[in-house]
């Protein structure tokens, strides 16, 4: 089959590899019909998350049709022919964490848990196509994928709803939604969101669903700010302001946003000497992550407010304003998304017509163009916001 | 069970060596259905046993007090279920990788086979010396065994109705102390780590009915260096371009 492989930092190629096979009783094989590139994949592409290996198959946002199920799967739960969206977190369904709905913390899905333990004390769940430290599972930017614990994760999708409307249930819609939930929104609240990538876009819309009155969205890419505006947010282009924190104060009667969200993660851009120091340290690998948005979010948040962090961090950061965090009495909520908590309710919302998630997709190329698409998405060329690839389209170098 | 055979460098094992396939088992009520077990690579076995058995011997060679490996694990299940599973020693090779087989011979006795360096097999017979139903089991090798082993496991209801806390302690007195010491030093395996691995596999088996794995999964072309590293030590996980150690040294430099 065709698969998008990580071949080194900045090196993505589409390779022909053997088809996946069932390895454990609760596995299933899915024939993939749509698969996306995520902001998280860019952290791998740029080499900022350790424990990738040449030849790893990328991709954790995919959907398709079940073509094979293992002997441990109850056919009432999943059978050949089912159309499913696969969540990016892998969870057993029966450990303390799964039972507590903390799906992305499952204790039994990461065979390499001990590598993660070295860095984080305890290991989160395994993820598709996202480093050996998080399981080393081959991902879903391919024609087929092996899905472990397939009786727990995959969400069945009724016929008739097109892929574009549901494929983002595999990650970014639930991620934006959980990030909004983590803002502890009360009616009338103002939320400031750093990052208007796909996660930020879904977060904006979810904040309104959860009762926020104002959302202030921050980025510097015009088309992303435009999309944020279409979602009802007020926008700030941080390239055009000298003092973002002061501007947020001015916009909120010197109270500050009730919640601040970092939907940027470890590769934030910024200005000035602080940013240059972070960049240099990250390049020298003295600091693994560049926490510019996180620092600003803490600084800008009103007293007693909440900081929500869907943005991914991999290691260690410098100069977190802990004094501000402590003295203002803030709370912070974060995590890889507890997917299975949100997929079904959000599918219901899609079916009801509350939201059509396909608004975020800007490119629908065949999978053969993955290398170009990674580059385009990372460098924000061609107004690219979200790439959904077709693994079966006749590839060649057709236009996207 | 191959999972355990991953041991590498200073004190860690892993979960994605190549070419080994293992089916987990499904536990439904009291029925244990094993879908089939295939053997791990000889090198893996060798290393596993080196780590699990000989390393302890090495440590013991110059210590009067025998060190025991011990650890605990929380399992979402009742003490009864955990006790029942553990009580059948024939289940051990499902989650203890250095064991090739355990055969219950009756009257609380069992015959154990572990695989050591270069495929050497170690055998010993053991008997249950004490057991409290649903609470604890203690066993010990019979006199005259190649390896002296004693083990103790305890099952307690976990606080907050979170299932069962299994605490295990196993002590080995290996065959050749001095040799064991040399080998252990060379490989630097950590028996406590191996025991944690074993218990994690047990947990997965009991909670999920299978042990997570990526062994044998499809992937793209690996690099020549990775292939070479795997050839030399199939159980050493290859950590890609950026070593975790780097992250650690970063931590040190930063703080
Ligand atoms: N928690 C989870 O489970 C989860 C799931 C998916 C993605 N993520 C993470 O969420 C983050 C966003 O994902 P995405 O797909 O939207 O990525 P993306 O790269 O498309 O979007 C990031 C956006 O942040 C903007 N940005 C950069 N620096 C900024 C700054 N200083 N202030 C404001 N905006 C800034 C960029 O211009 C870009 O538009 C990533 O870190 C990703 O890894 C987390
Ligand atoms: Zn994603
Ligand atoms: Zn679990």
Written account of the structure:
Chain A is an alpha/beta fold and 400 residues long. Chain A is built from 13 helices and 17 strands. In chain A, the strands form four sheets. In chain A, strands 3, 5, 6, 9, 10 and 17 form a six-stranded antiparallel sheet that branches. A six-stranded parallel sheet of chain A has the order 13-12-11-14-15-16, with helices on both faces. In chain A, strands 2-1-4 form a three-stranded antiparallel sheet, with helices on one face. In chain A, strand 12 (214-219), helix 7 and strand 13 form a beta-alpha-beta unit. With 255 residues, chain B is of the alpha+beta class. Chain B is 32% helix and 28% strand. Chain B is globular, with a radius of gyration of 19 Å. The interface between A and B is large, with 65 and 54 residues. Residues 91-93, 95, 97-98, 106-108 of chain A line the site of one zinc ion (ZN).
List the keywords:
A: 400 residues; alpha/beta; Quinone Oxidoreductase, Chain A, domain 1; 2 domains; six-stranded antiparallel sheet; 28% helix; 19% strand; globular; B: 255 residues; seven-stranded antiparallel sheet; 7 helices; disordered N terminus; binds nicotinamide-adenine-dinucleotide
């Amino acid at each position: 089959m065709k698969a998008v492989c990580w071949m080194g930092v900045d090196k993505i190629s589409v390779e022909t590899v053997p088809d996946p096979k069932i390895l454990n009783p609760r596995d299933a094989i899915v024939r993939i019909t749509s698969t996306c590139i995520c902001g998280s994949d860019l952290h791998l592409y740029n080499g900022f998350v350790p424990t990738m290996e040449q030849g790893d198959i990328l991709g954790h946002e995919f959907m398709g049709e079940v073509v094979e199920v293992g002997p441990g799967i109850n056919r009432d739960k999943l059978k050949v022919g089912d159309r499913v969206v696969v969540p990016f977190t892998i969870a057993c369904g029966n450990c303390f964490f799964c039972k507590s709905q903390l799906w992305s913390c499952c204790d039994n899905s990461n065979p390499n848990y001990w590598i993660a333990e070295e860095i984080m004390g305890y290991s989160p769940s395994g993820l598709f196509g996202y480093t050996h430290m998080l399981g080393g599972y081959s991902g879903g930017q391919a024609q087929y994928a092996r899905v472990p614990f397939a009786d727990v994760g995959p969400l069945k999708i009724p016929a008739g709803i097109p892929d574009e409307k549901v494929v983002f249930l595999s990650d970014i819609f639930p991620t934006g939604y959980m990030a909004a939930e983590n803002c502890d929104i009360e009616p009338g609240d103002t939320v400031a969101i750093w990052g208007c990538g796909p996660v930020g876009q879904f977060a904006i819309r979810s904040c309104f669903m959860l009762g926020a009155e104002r959302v202030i969205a921050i980025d510097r890419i015009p088309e992303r700010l435009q999309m944020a505006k279409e979602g009802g947010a007020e926008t700030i282009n941080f390239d055009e302001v000298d003092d973002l924190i002061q501007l947020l104060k001015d916009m909120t009667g010197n109270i500050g946003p009730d919640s601040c969200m970092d939907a940027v993660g470890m590769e934030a851009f910024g200005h000035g000497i602080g940013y240059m120091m972070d960049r240099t340290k990250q390049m020298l690998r003295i600091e693994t992550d560049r926490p510019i948005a996180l620092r600003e979010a803490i600084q800008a948040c009103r007293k007693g407010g909440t900081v929500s962090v869907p943005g991914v961090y991999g290691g260690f950061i410098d100069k977190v304003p802990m004094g501000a965090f402590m003295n203002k009495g803030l709370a912070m909520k974060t995590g890889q998304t507890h997917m299975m908590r949100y997929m079904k309710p959000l599918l219901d919302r899609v079916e009801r017509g509350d939201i059509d998630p396909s608004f975020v997709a800007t490119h629908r190329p065949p999978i053969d163009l993955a290398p170009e698409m990674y580059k385009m998405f990372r460098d924000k060329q061609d107004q690219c916001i979200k790439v959904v690839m077709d693994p079966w389209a006749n590839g060649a170098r057709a236009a996207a | 069970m191959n999972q355990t055979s991953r041991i590498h460098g200073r004190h860690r094992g892993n979960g994605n060596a190549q070419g080994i396939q293992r089916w987990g088992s499904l536990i439904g009520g009291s029925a244990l259905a094993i879908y089939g077990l295939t053997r791990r690579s000889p090198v893996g076995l060798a290393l596993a046993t080196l780590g699990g058995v000989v390393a302890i011997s090495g440590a013991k060679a110059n210590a009067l007090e025998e060190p025991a490996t011990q650890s605990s694990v929380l399992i979402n299940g009742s003490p009864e279920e955990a006790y029942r599973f553990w009580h059948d020693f024939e289940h051990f090779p499902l989650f203890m990788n250095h064991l090739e087989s355990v055969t219950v011979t009756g009257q609380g006795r069992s015959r154990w086979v572990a695989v050591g360096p270069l495929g050497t097999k170690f055998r010993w017979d053991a008997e249950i010396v004490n057991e409290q139903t649903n609470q604890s089991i203690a066993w010990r090798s019979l006199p005259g065994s190649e390896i002296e082993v004693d083990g103790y496991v305890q099952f307690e209801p976990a606080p907050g109705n979170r299932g069962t806390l299994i605490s295990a302690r196993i002590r080995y007195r290996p065959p050749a102390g001095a040799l064991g010491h040399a080998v252990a030093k060379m490989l630097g395996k950590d028996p406590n780590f191996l025991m944690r691995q074993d218990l994690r596999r047990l947990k997965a088996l009991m909670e999920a009915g299978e042990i997570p794995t990526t062994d044998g999964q499809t992937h793209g072309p690996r690099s020549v260096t990775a292939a070479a590293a795997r050839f030399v030590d199939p159980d050493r996980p290859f950590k890609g371009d950026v070593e975790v150690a780097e992250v650690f040294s970063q931590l040190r430099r930063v703080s």
